[in-house]
Amino acid sequence: VDLIERAARDIINSRNAIALTGAGISVESGIEAFRGSQGLWAKYDPEEYATIQAFIDNPEKVWNMFREVLETIINAKPNPAHYSLAELENMGYLKRVITQNVDGLHQEAGNKNVIEFHGNNRELVCLRCNSRYSMNSFNWMEVIPRCKCTSILKPAVVFFGEPIPWDALTTAQSDARKCDLIMVIGTSAVVSPAREMPVIAKQNGAKVIEINIEETSLTYTTSDYIIKGSSGIVLPGIVNKIKEIQ
Ligand code: NAD
Ligand code: ZN
What does the alpha-carbon distance between residue 193 and residue 210 come to, in Å, rounded to a whole number? Predict the structure, then answer.
């Protein structure tokens, strides 16, 4: 069977399809994924840089890594995978994108219903007094942003050891329970609780379609099938097939 066609038919026959995306969907936009030899974690040990304790202990050091990440992210543009999900939403086939990414590329591509499970890179938060600021109001390349209370500001991304924003978590869980199809795209599915969304969906009878260049921990336990390939090729293929047969 042609899995692209199978996915196209499954999407056409669904009533409430959603997607969970991870760093892999943005690789073709020039943003490296975290795991893998080229990944950021090969250079920066997450224990040392991406935990909330690391930020509390040494915010200057974490900011130096963050600058590097932000520079790449800010210059990145959506790729055909992002645009395909926007098209599926416009066609009425995709109710929500739950993304683990903080790059904002789904919104830039045109998706309206996006849950940013791990926060975003547009805002800064104060861990001391809870004030929030727009990233744009600081020259963060030159100086480390500080709150009016003098505390060093933290990017509004979820660090390891921090809770998922309550709204994002509860909405995603409810989506996962209600959906009848979930596409799991470009995520290694090792970070919890994000990885639980397809598991919840499966337990509630949804089809789980994985799109990834390699197998993951979900592949033989949770996924109905995996379409092996890069998301920038596979997703446009599915959209074209839907247009052909609908
Ligand atoms: P991950 O790095 O753990 O896994 C990436 C997955 O994408 C892998 O399974 C890999 O096989 C797959 N992949 C790589 N290139 C692909 C392609 N072209 N097409 C399809 N699949 C491809 O990423 P994760 O599971 O999202 O978890 C890492 C955490 O890091 C997430 O919480 C995320 O918030 C964060 N992160 C975000 C960004 C971003 O915002 N773009 C980038 C790196 C990491
Ligand atoms: Zn403050």
Answer: 18
